[in-house]
Amino acid sequence: MQAKLTHNKRERSQIGGGTANIQELSKFEENAAELTREDRDHSCGEGNARVRGQAGLLSERRGSYPVIDFRLLNTTAHSGEIGTKKRVKRLLSFQRYFHASRLLRGIVPQTCLHLLDEDYLGQARHMLSKVGRWNFDIFLFDRLTNGNSLVTLLCHLFNLHGLIHHFQLDMVKLHRFLVMIQEDYHSQNPYHNAVHAADVTQAMHCYLKEPKLSRFLSPLDIMLGLMAAAAHDVDHPGVNQPFLIKTKHHLANLYQNISVLENHHWRSTVGMLRESGLLAHLPVESIQDVEQQLGSLILATDISRQNEFLARMKTHSDNRDLSLEDADHKHFILQIALKCADICNPCRVWNMSKQWSEKVCEEFYRQGDLEQRFQFEVSPLCNQQNDTIPSIQIGFMSYIVEPLFMEWSRFTENTPLTITMMSHLRKNKARWRGLLLKQHNSEDNSAQMNEDKSRTSQEVEHQ
Question: Which residues are the active-site residues?
Answer without folding.
Answer: 192
